[in-house]
Design a protein that fits this description.
The chain is α+β, with helices and mostly antiparallel strands. The protein is about 25% helix and about 30% strand. α2 packs antiparallel against α3.
């Protein structure tokens, strides 16, 4: 299976379990890996046979900058569901949501979740 990936999409938003996290925006970084067959797009050099990267970016942006959520797990699920429902040619999606400034005592470089979802058979 071929892949399209968008890495390091960065947004400021207010998500988290703690009350102050819903008031103060912090940085979220999203990586998306999309599984699909790119053979026809490569052979025909036709954008209609692939996925518009800007549209994927916009789905991610709207989700991250949208209504506050408690969990980054929920953000990842929403992104995966929207990507799979928007683009019928995508067979699976791995979505990673990073929250590098999560309010965890101690030193760390990143915290995040990565989910993988596949298109359900009709």
């Amino acid at each position: 299976m071929d892949k399209i990936f968008l890495c390091g999409m960065t947004f400021a938003a207010a998500h988290g379990v703690l009350p102050h996290e819903k008031e103060m925006r912090q940085r979220f970084v999203v990586d998306a890996e999309l599984l699909l067959d790119l053979h026809a797009a490569g052979l025909h050099d036709d954008v209609a046979e692939t996925v518009n990267y800007a549209e994927v970016y916009e789905i991610v942006r709207r989700t991250i900058e949208g209504a506050p959520k408690n969990l980054i797990e929920s953000l990842a699920e929403d992104i995966a569901e929207q990507v799979l429902s928007t683009f019928s040619m995508i067979r699976g999606a791995s979505i990673t949501v990073h929250k590098p400034e999560a309010p965890i005592p101690g030193i760390f470089s990143d915290v995040g979740v990565c989910i993988t979802r596949e298109r359900k058979a009709p």
